[in-house]
Amino acid sequence: MDDPQLTVQCVGALIVYVAARLCHQAFVKSIEVWYSSPANRHLYFKAFKDQYQETGKADFSAFMKTHPETISQTFGDEATSEGQMVKAIVQPSAIIMAIGGIMMRCGGNSMWGYVFHAFRGLMTPTGLLVVLQTPVVSGAGAGNKDIREGKKVSNIELIYQLNWVILHFVGFAAFLGPAVIIELPVAVYEILTHQSSGGGLHLEAARLGLAAMRILCAVLLVIAAPFLTRESTKNPNTLGALKWRAEFTVGEFGACQMYFNALSVWIQPGTAYGWADMALLALLAFEAFRIFFSHGVFWLVTMMQWDTIDWAALMQREVPAQGPLMKALRQKTGNELIHLHAVQAGVPDFSESIVKASTYLPASAVATGCKYDKIKLLVFKPDNYENFKAMDFPDLSDMDLEYWNGDFTRVLATLPSVDTLFFPFGTYKLDMMIPMVLVSITDYTADVAKLGPEVAANSLPCNALTDDVGYDITSKVLSDPRGAFLSQQCFNDAMKAKGKTAGFYKLISEIGDLIEKATYATKADGAAVPLLSKPPQGYEIQLRGALQLSPKVVLRAPKTQALPAGWESVPKVDAMPTSVA
Description:
By secondary structure, the chain is an alpha+beta fold. The protein has helices at residues 4-36, 38-55, 71-75, 81-104, 111-133, 142-148, 155-181, 183-192, 201-224, 239-266, 275-304, 311-318, 324-333, 353-356, 363-366, 398-412, 444-449, 474-478, 491-496, 502-519; strands at 340-344, 378-382, 418-426, 437-441, 468-472, 520-522, 528-530, 538-544, 552-558, 572-573. The longest helix is centred in the N-terminal third of the chain and has 33 residues, at 4-36.
C-alpha cells in the first residue's frame, strides 16, 4: 500500500472497528453483571416474592419487573461493578474511536470537505462520551430518579434536573444521529455514483454490498427507535425490559454501521491483499454480520413479536435451575419447587443461577455441591430468597424459611428411605457460604433410581475424616425450648407447621458460639486467647432418623475441638451414620 492517505485511512478503520467492538462487549456484559449484582438480585427476587404472595402462584415474569429501562440505568451508578466496567472499557474506546474516526475519514478537496469528514469521524464517539458521562439515573441527584418514576418535583428542581437530562439526550442524538443523517445519504450516494475501478467483480460486489448494509443498518435503526417510546405492554412486568432492548438494539444497528464503514475503507480502490489479509478481513466481516443478525435483527424481530410471547413461561424455563435432579424432583412432587435447589454431591448443575452469573469462574468453583466428591449424598439449598447475604438458615426471613420448609418437605416425601439431615457450619461447608443441608438415604441407589432415568446415582461412600468425632447432644437440644418439639413430632412434620423450625435453626447456629467460647480462654484484661495454635473453625449438626419421632442429634467436630462447659459427659458416637457407608 504505497498511498500514505490510504494507509492512514485503513489504520483508522481498524481502530474504529476494534473500539466499536469493545463498546459492544461492555454493553452486552453490563446487563449480565447487573443481573448478578446482589443488590439487584434483592430487587427482582423481592418483586417476584411480592407478586407470589399477592396472587398465591408463581409469575416468573415478575423477575423482569425491576429490569432497567435504559442502558444508562444499567451503568448509571459508578459505585457498582457494572458502572465501573462500562466506564473502564467504553471511555478509552470512545477516545481512540475519535482518533480512528478522523484517520478513517481523512481526505477532502476543500476546507468544507475537511470539516465534513472530521465531523463524521468525531460525532459518534463524542456523543458516546457525553452519554457515558451523563447517566440519567444518578448523575444529577436523587430528583432525577423521582422524575423518571413520574413523581412530582418542584419547578426549580425540574429545571435543574432537565439541564442534565437534556445534555444526556444531546449526546444520545450525537451518537446515533450520524447513522441516519450522514451515513445513510453517503452510502446511497456511493451506490448511485459507483464506477468500476477494475479491481475485480468480487471487490465491486463487496463494496456495493457493504454500502447496502450501511443503508440497511440506518433503516432498521429508524424502525427500532419507536420502541423507545412504548408506554405499555401486554404484560406490564416486561415494559422496562422492552425499552432497554429497544435502546440496545438501536445502538447495535449504529455500531454495525460503523463495522461496515470500516470494512468499506479496507476494500476501496488502491488496496492490495494477500491470503493473510483476506483471512483477516473475512474474520472481521463474519463478526460484523454475526452481531448484526444475532443482536440487532434478532432483537428487532423479538420486539415486534413482544406481546405475543409468553414471558412468564419463558422465564420459568430460564430462571429456575433445570438440572436432571431438579427436573426429576419437580415431576415427582408435581410442584415447581421455586424456593429450593438440589444436586447430588459433586455433580454440578450448570443451569443454576450462581453458575450462569459467573462469567469468568468455572462451574467447579461456584456450583452448589461441587466441592464434594461424588458421594452418596444430596445437597439442598434455599433458592429465590430475599437476603442475598444469608450464609445460614437463621439469616433468612420467616417468610423465606416458610417457603423453603414447604419445598423441602415435598422433596423429602418422595425419598422413602431418608435417614440423616446434615447442617454444616464454618469449614464443614467447604467454602460454600450459603444456607445448605445435606441428606443421606439408606437405600440411596433405589430411591434415586425412582426419580427417573436422567439421574445417575452416585456410588462413593461418605467416610468421616479420621480426626472427626461425633457427640450425641440429643439431650442438650431437647432440653432447649427451641428443640423440644423433636420429642413430639418428626422434623419433616415440624417443617409443615408455620414458624416451628425457625428457633431450631437458630439453636444449632448458636452451638457455634458455645464452641467458640470453649476454644478460647479469656485473659484478665478481657482478651481472648486461642487454646490451640490452629483452633477448629467449623462443625456439623446431624439429625439421624430425621423423619422419625425423637431423632438422634449428633454434633460432628474435629477431635481437637473443646466442648462447651457442661458438655464433658456427652457420649461419643461414630462421626457419620451407617447410611452413608
